Amino acid sequence: MNPVRMLLLGTLLQVKQQSRSPLEITISLLVPLVQATLAVYLFKAGTNPPALLLAAVGAGMMGVWSSVLFGSGAAIQNQRFQGTLEILMITPMRPAFKILPITLATGLVGLYSVVATLLWGVLLLGVPPSFAAPLWFVVAAPVCVLALGAFGLLLASTFVLLRNANAIVNPLGYPVWLLSGMLVPVTALPGWTGPIAAVLPTTWGARALRAAVTGGPVWPALALCVGEALIALVLGAIALHFVDRRARVTATLALT
Amino acid sequence: MRTLRLLTVGGVIAYRALFNWTTPAMFVGTLLVSPVFQLLFFVYLGRTLHVGDDLGYLVGNAVLSAALACVYGGTMAVANERRYGTLGPLLLSPLRRAAVFGGRALPYAVNGVLISAFTLTVGALLLRIPIGVRSLPGLALAICVGALSCSFFGLTLGSIGLRFRDVWLVSNVADAVLLLVSGVNVAPAALPPVLRAAGALLPLRHAATAAREAAGGAPLARLVPPLGAELGLAAGYALLAIGLLALFERGSRRHATLDVL
Amino acid sequence: MAGELAIEAVGLRRTYRTRTGWLRPRRGSVDAVRGVDFAVARGELFGLLGPNGAGKTTTIKMLNTLLTPTGGTARVMGLDVVRDTRAVRRRIGYVFGGDRGLYERLSALDNLRYFAELYGVPAREQRARIGALLDAVDLTGREHERVEGYSRGMRQRLHIARGLLHEPDVLFLDEPSIGVDPVAARELRAMIAELSASGTTVLLTTHYMAEAEELCDRIAVIAAGRLAALGTADELKHAAAGRRVLSVEAYGVTDAHLAHLDALSGVRDATVEVSGQQQTLRIQTDAHVDVQPAVLRELAGVRLGRVETRAPTLEDAYVAIVNSTRAEAAA
Known about the structure:
By secondary structure, chain A is mainly α. In chain A, 78% of the residues lie in helices and 0% in strands.
């Protein structure tokens, strides 16, 4: 067995499965376009407009988070409906190998939304594509997306365990958008939110992409984003190990 | 009498059968917590960009928070019949479609009102934004009318779901579009004409306007035009929903498109 | 001796917790399986029969590591299902009936490739093995199509191919023939028989008596969470030994009729099966009594079809076993 090959094939097939779902495409493509439009008009209306490009990039990052959050929630829920969650968990690999491809795939599907919001902003909304460090952006965007996918593993462990994953998923969209400074700068929020923001890889991912737009060093934020994602990956793998055992006690892998 | 019973009792039973979000965790998480965070997000965004004032964002987003329950709920009220395979038996019922489906929007409207009131209260407390007692009747009226028209809008989307399989896609986009064009977060004047026109024809924009006026201390008489417009939309969507239902039902017999499988 | 056993269940139990209500939830528990013991030898084809909700699927899921037993122990190929989970998983295949259990938006080939990876089938063997399995389940040529366009029978065959990818020692088949047309079901039976002949241990649940009788070396009947009978098909028929079966086609038999029939002397059990307009009364009697005249008198006024007396089949035995456990449970 070759773990790299397995993860690559698994991720590829999960991307295929998810990107053929109209709902997944809507969440990661159409809704971010509406959000980008909203962000750009809001920023245009503002008396103190920061770069409009930041609005488009921020909306793209919001899309990535939606995709990871709603996407992995929905993917695992669908597998439960489809009966494949049991089939997946009964295979002899370590649980993380079975679930990580699903969340990595949601991140990659979310990459659509970064590209789409940028194109939409530049082509239709008249956002000037003035990147301070375009090459860094090209590097940082996919790295962020994969990092968030890896972070998703930690979320996914709860989705596997709880039959009603949506109850956790739905309220987690806006807080993370807000706290990680995707559109609202972290400095505008009450001070006590700082530590929470600091442990979210989304914060550092958003900061890295903002730096690529406005200038300044990209790599420290990017490194922190990847570092936190790796920690989440390890925690997620450990959590899944226990979830695998727990789900067999609580009988939540199947619907019946 | 029988129609009234069908409207109320039938509506409530259908709500319990078809609304997927009635478990405690789902209700609290999705319908109560989520809108509060949405409100906070936009209030902070408004503050950062120095557009509008806190009070306007607060009441506007509170009205808008009903959208989630009403749009998705209205959609589920019809579209889930198809998913559960109960559409066939339902359409075989000899009763009037208008009463069967019309009653379904009402529980979601009530639900929407509760959510708006909750969001408004929690938002005002968290952000320490005072709301005058004298503006409460106007606000309450605006919230009720907004939730009603939004529920009928949801029912219209649900009727579309009878004909097209991927209705959740429509409600997801509809929810996001309401955020954009309802004038709550981006002033209508800042939007291009197409989106401005869309906002005027979709639910909640007029209700949000009325709520803002009320919060600003306007007398009830000033709320009549926007609330009248919103009520007009409510009636319009109710008729549209029932018309579409009838149309798709007739079409389905001819083309067998309602086949549940 | 233990080395000869493929599956060994000792005092297996499973209780589910339930929760109903909104603000003040009522908690309760349901005993799905209440202490089941059986052993399956290597290479045996073992059938598990029982009414809906009797605990068949729960039993299978405890044996295949999807559920943890709340009591008792189970071993598969000598390995404990709770302690040696991964080792058990490597040795077993699991296939269930119905439409579910496949990635709908992927092709058959992609489904098989993914699971070949997840079962650790070496990369250089994958192509040959997938090809051979596609051939065996008659899907060659359609393997690039998405599963969502497949018929029930094709899905079922793909499901089986997926379950066999890693050449499991033990295969769990949970109602594989459900909703499959008669021709496809026949092919399915041939495939199961072939697998068993090649040395794979098979545990099969089904509602079709003919299928169980044709295929299974031994059959266990589970009713109300307990093992009600265990033996070969012929041995099980002894449950109905000393009986005859009077079978009557009828139109319009009521529950009151049935109660009267049940009360006739010499009648052990009366059941009715409905298919469309037609009802089939099955009256089990002691072999030495002729109840036909009395039965026909009771049914005066009811339109009747064919009436025949015959020796009991496996189905009659099954009905007798299940009904007697129900009577015990009610008593």
